[in-house]
């Protein structure tokens, strides 16, 4: 019996010793020291941009604009232009547009905090608004497209349009049988700049789901456009699918015949045609990236051009894209020096990449694109034509990318 009691005392003593050892050893472990991010001297308890204030302000249903509590303030001083990003998207695109926003914010907009307008042919749901508002450093605005801008106009023969879609489906023409794609092309060609939310702005930067920016942009692109008197810009250019626009140039020539006053004297016809305007060579600026002037799109010249094309019915009887429509309009109604090629904006939209030509620029601006992927000097690109038309010297090193 005595042995059993002695044995129990040993066990209790051993447990006590282990507990004491645990507390002594744990008290000697230093606490974790986390690095601080940003300039701590600029953070004060009274500002809404402090981490603690941001956390305390978070609610299950994040408010929309203005979004002042989730991202730091703009880092580049100076006045801002009356400009916005604009995206046509559906609720199901939320995670793909989230990727695009992160690229735009990280590479550019966190420094400037420009607004973002989202447009949809349906109502945006709370999830889409909550996620996009949290990501954008400027104000976010959500608009529904009027039905009359996303439907067949009354002059379209529905049977004829349906037959065309079926024929294109059989020929396996991309988006050939899609009704919604045609509505999108028509809307981007003639209506997005007339939406009430867009009327507040003078400049726009179009962003689509699943695009990527590969280099830091450290200057205000909108201010650059204004100061250099540019009205339209691009990063990629290529040839359009011939099967989608068989009569687009005929409709264009009909327009120029009736509205000669809208054609600029120093235009870019040489970019669009190899024979002085008799035929179209199918070159166009890829419009999923655009930075442009909204007042130009709202001008009588552009509205007359779009209305003329719309009445011709090619958005539905063929499959006219907004890219050739914008490009032909810019090429004919703007002077050559009003169109700008952003070599320094590294951009990707499946399947093409624009990676700036020039190694030193890529190094200085922390570019992550592979120059071997650059589409600019590919045989199917029209960018060389743009340089030649404007008597511009091609960037050093372009030969290595051909």
Automatic annotation (TrEMBL):
Residues 39-51 have a biased composition (Low complexity). Keywords: Glycosyltransferase, Transferase. One of its GO terms (cellular component) is membrane. The active site is at 290 (nucleophile). It holds the Pfam family Glyco_transf_15. Residues 39-76 are annotated as: Disordered. GO terms for biological process: cell wall mannoprotein biosynthetic process; protein N-linked glycosylation; protein O-linked glycosylation. The keyword Glycosyltransferase applies. Belongs to the glycosyltransferase 15 family. This is Nucleotide-diphospho-sugar transferase. It comes from Paraphoma chrysanthemicola.
């Amino acid at each position: 019996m005595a042995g059993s009691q002695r044995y129990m005392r040993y066990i209790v003593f051993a447990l006590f010793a282990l507990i004491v050892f645990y507390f002594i050893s744990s008290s000697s472990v230093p606490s974790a020291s986390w690095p601080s991010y940003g300039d701590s001297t600029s953070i004060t308890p009274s500002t809404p941009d402090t981490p603690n204030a941001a956390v305390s302000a978070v609610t299950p249903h994040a408010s929309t604009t203005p979004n002042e509590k989730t991202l730091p303030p703009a880092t580049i001083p100076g006045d801002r232009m009356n400009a916005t990003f604009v995206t046509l998207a559906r609720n199901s695109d939320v995670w793909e547009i989230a990727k695009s926003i992160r690229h735009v914010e990280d590479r550019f907009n966190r420094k400037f905090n420009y607004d973002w307008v989202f447009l949809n042919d349906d109502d945006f749901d709370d999830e889409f608004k909550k996620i996009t508002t949290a990501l954008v450093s400027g104000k976010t605005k959500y608009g529904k497209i009027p039905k009359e801008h996303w439907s067949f106009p009354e002059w379209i023969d529905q049977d004829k349009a349906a037959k065309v879609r079926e024929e294109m489906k059989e020929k396996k023409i991309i988006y050939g049988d899609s009704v919604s794609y045609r509505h999108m092309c028509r809307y981007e060609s003639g209506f997005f700049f007339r939406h009430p939310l867009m009327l507040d702005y003078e400049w726009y930067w179009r962003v689509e789901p699943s695009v990527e920016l590969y280099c830091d942009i450290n200057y205000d692109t909108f201010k650059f456009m204004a100061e250099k008197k540019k009205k339209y810009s691009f990063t990629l250019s290529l040839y359009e699918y011939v099967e989608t626009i068989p009569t687009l140039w005929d409709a264009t020539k009909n327009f120029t015949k009736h509205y000669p006053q809208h054609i600029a004297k120093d235009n870019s016809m040489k970019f669009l045609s190899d024979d002085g305007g008799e035929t179209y060579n199918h070159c166009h600026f890829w419009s999923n990236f655009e930075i442009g002037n909204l007042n130009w799109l709202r001008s009588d010249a552009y509205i007359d051009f779009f209305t003329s094309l719309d009445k011709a019915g090619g958005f539905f009887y063929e499959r006219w894209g907004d890219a050739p429509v914008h490009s032909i309009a810019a090429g004919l109604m703007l002077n050559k020096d009003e169109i700008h090629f952003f070599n320094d904006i590294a951009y990707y939209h499946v399947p093409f990449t624009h990676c700036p030509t020039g190694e030193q620029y890529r190094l200085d601006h922390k570019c992550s694109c592979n120059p071997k992927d650059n589409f600019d000097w590919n045989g199917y690109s029209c960018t060389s034509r743009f340089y030649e038309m404007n008597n511009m010297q091609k960037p050093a090193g372009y030969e290595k990318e051909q």
